[in-house]
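Margin note: ligand = zinc ion.
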Amino acid sequence: MSIDNLVELQEIDTKLKDLSDLLGDLPSKIDELDLQEQSTKDTLLSNKSRLKELEVEMHKREVDVDQVNGKVNKLKDQLFLVTNNKQYDALMLEIDHLKDQRSSFETESLEFLEEKETLTSSVTSMESELGDLTQDLSNRRVKLESAIADSAVEKKSLDRMRDNHLSGIDSNIISTYEKVKNHREGLGVVEISGGACGGCGAHVPPQVITEVRAKEGLHSCDVCGRFLYNNTKLIIN
Ligand SMILES: [Zn+2]
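Resulting structure:
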C-alpha cells in the first residue's frame, strides 16, 4: 500500500465528517431531552402514586378520629353514672388520653393535606412541562430524520467506499490513523506545506520531505503524529 490509500481514506472520512456536522448538535440535544423526558415521567409516576397513598392515609385518619369521638362520647355518658370521685377521675383520665390521640391523628391529617397540596401543584406544573418537552422532542426528531434522510444516499455510498479502502490498508496503520484522527480534529493525514506539517505547522526535515515526495514508506509528523503526503492529486467521487 502507499500513502495514496491513506489520503483517499482521509478524503472519505472528511466528507463523512462534513455530513455528520450538518446534523449539528441535534442528535446530542435529542438524547439529552430524551433523558429529561424519561426522568420527568418517572418523577410524575412516583408523585402520583404518593398522592394515592396520601388519599388512603387521610381516609384512615378520618376513620380513626370518628372512632375516638365515639369512644369519648360513650365515656362522657358514663360520667353521669359515676358514684364517686375516684371513678370520675378515672373516666376523665381516659377521656384526656383519647383526646390526645385524636389531636395527634388530626396533626397527621394536616401534614398529609399539606403534602397533598404541594404534590398536586407540582404534578400540575410537571405535566405541562412534560407536554412542552414532548412537543419539542418530536419537532427535533422530525428535523433530524429529514436531515438524515437528505444525506442518507451520500452517506451510504461513502460508507461503502470506506469499507473498500479499509480492506487495502494494513490494520496497524488504520488503527494509528484512527487514533491520530480522533485526537486531531478529524485529520490523520495532511499535506506538507512549505516544508512544514500541514496539520500543526511543525518543521519537516528535508530528508523526510524527499522520501515523502518519492513515496518511500510512510512518514508522520514528529509533533502531531499525522501521516504526511506531498501534492498527491486525487479525485474521489
Ligand atoms: Zn504535525
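The beta strands are 189-193, 196-197, 227-229.
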